[in-house]
Structures are given as C-alpha cells and as structure tokens.
C-alpha cells in the first residue's frame, strides 16, 4: 500500500513538472494569450466587470486557441468554453494529445459537467487573477489553472491524471443573469 502511494506521488510529481515545462515553453515562445499584449489602453469598465465575475465565481471563458503538448497552436471555433457557476463546472473543451488510461473509444475527454473542488483565487502580477480548481469528470481527475488578465483575456492550463497536459486561451465573458438563476 505504501509503495503504491509512493508510485502515485512520483507520477503526479512528474506530470506537474512536465506541465510546468510545457507552459513555460509555450509562454516563452509567445503563443499564450495574444490579447494581453495587444491591449493599448486600460478600460476601467472591463477591469471592473472581470473582477466582479471572478469574485462572484460566475463566468465563462470562451476558448479560441488550443495548445497541445505535441503540436503547435490550433485555432478553434466559438463552440468551446468552460463555464463556472459558483460550485459547478461545465467543461466543453476539445482534447488533442496522448491519453494514458481512458475508456474504450476514447471517453468524453474534457467534455463534462461536474462539481468544483478546491477552488482558489488570488491576485497575480499586473492586475491578473490566478484561479485554480479541480473536478472529477467521471473518468478522470482534472486540475484547471486560469490566468485572467484585466482586459478579459484568459489562459487555461489543464492537467489530467490520465492525459497529457494541454493549454487554451480565450476571453472571459459575463454569464446572462437568467442562466444564473437556473
């Protein structure tokens, strides 16, 4: 039992190290979040809306770029997003990469609805919001790390226990009040 725990701990450590290395490499190559570098003026209304959405834990990130480990950036259409509504998550993210242990046929990947565990939010550099949480998809344990920039652009890093890490970029949007009440 102790040996199994040590093996799992070592595997989790390796996955974290690989994920950090990949994220550093992608960020260094300038592929993450083109929005943040293209903003020329600071809009106080946008900054306030972003802060309120993150503080209320009610927001949606519409994803337009995917960065798998084994491939360059892939442009996406407007069908992909993650939605956080208090303590629940709706993940509609495509997955492209290596899977280590998945159900026959590939499973659902990162297309799932689940409760959020271990939600944490803090302030980052230059007005950024750093958000992390995890969820169980039914076939995998998935950790999300979001960096939300003051202009509403966002980058998402996803670390799964059964798949290679992957990153996304997109924009944070406000959720309609009618949907919040459901």
Can you offer a commentary on this structure?
The protein has a single domain (2-180), classed as Lipocalin, CATH 2.40.128.410. Helix content is 27%, strand content 38%. The chain has 4 helices and 9 strands, in the order H-H-H-E-E-E-E-E-E-E-E-E-H. It has helices spanning 2-28, 34-38, 44-56, 177-180, and strands at residues 58-68, 74-75, 81-85, 88-93, 110-123, 129-136, 141-148, 153-160, 166-173. The chain is globular and about 55 Å long. The relative contact order is 0.21.
Topology of helices and strands:
Blueprint: H1 2-28, H2 34-38, H3 44-56, E1 58-68, E2 74-75, E3 81-85, E4 88-93, E5 110-123, E6 129-136, E7 141-148, E8 153-160, E9 166-173, H4 177-180
Antiparallel strand pairs: 1-2, 1-3, 1-9, 3-4, 4-5, 5-6, 6-7, 7-8, 8-9
Quick structural summary:
This protein is α+β, with helices and mostly antiparallel strands and 182 residues long. Helix content is 27%, strand content 38%. Residues 23-41 have low confidence and may be disordered.
């Amino acid at each position: 039992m102790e040996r199994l725990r040590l093996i799992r701990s070592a595997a989790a450590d390796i996955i974290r190290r690989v994920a950090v290395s990949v994220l550093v490499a992608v960020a260094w190559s300038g592929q993450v979040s083109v929005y943040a570098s293209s903003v020329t003026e600071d809009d106080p209304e946008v900054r306030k809306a972003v802060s309120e959405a993150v503080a209320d834990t009610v927001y949606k990130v519409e994803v337009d770029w995917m960065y798998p480990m084994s491939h360059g950036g892939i442009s996406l259409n407007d069908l992909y997003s993650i939605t956080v509504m208090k303590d629940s998550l709706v993940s509609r993210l495509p997955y492209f990469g290596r899977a280590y242990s998945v159900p026959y046929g590939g499973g659902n990947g990162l297309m799932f609805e689940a409760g959020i565990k271990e939600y944490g939010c803090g302030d980052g550099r230059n007005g950024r919001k750093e958000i992390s949480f995890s969820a169980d998809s039914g076939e995998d344990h998935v950790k999300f790390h979001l960096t939300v920039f003051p202009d509403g652009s966002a980058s998402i890093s996803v670390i799964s226990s059964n798949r290679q890490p992957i990153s996304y970029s997109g924009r944070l949007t406000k959720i309609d009040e009618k949907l919040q009440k459901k």
